[in-house]
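re: that chain from earlier
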Amino acid sequence: MDLWTLACLAVLASVLIWLSVVDLRTGYLPDVGQIILAVAGLAVAIIGSPVGITWQAALIGALVNGGVFWGLRWAVSRVKGREAMGFGDVKLVAAGGLWLGPWALAYIMAAGGILTLVGAFIAGAALRKPVWQGEMPLGPGLGAGILGVFIAGLMHASWLMLAPIP
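^ sequence. v structure.
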């Protein structure tokens, strides 16, 4: 792995870990971290993404991912009659689109949902009470999904298509 790839991975991982810790402690994903993640993702796409995302795909990824998640947030909130997901989660997935493009959204959502439920199960087992009856932060699961998809892209996973076929 070259220095550029390691630097990209380090920036992505460190910001996502920081955002996850803050979300677990406070229930919020701070805008400063989201901005750092977004600016870094766009810069990586412009300079040369190690997973092959062009700046055009990065911008489309941010719009598609953010739009789909905003729509999901709106729909679920309507059904529940209250806010179902914070806007920080929408911004996190949009920033993930800058790093991974639009094709990664399904993987991010699947990993984010599964990892959030697994985390809630583990926390519930450790605390000996169900934690899913209250609010569950989605940011750590989404962050792990973004990081996992990025790593899978670095490993050229055969099941993953991030960049459009030339």
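The two ends are 24 Å apart (CA to CA).
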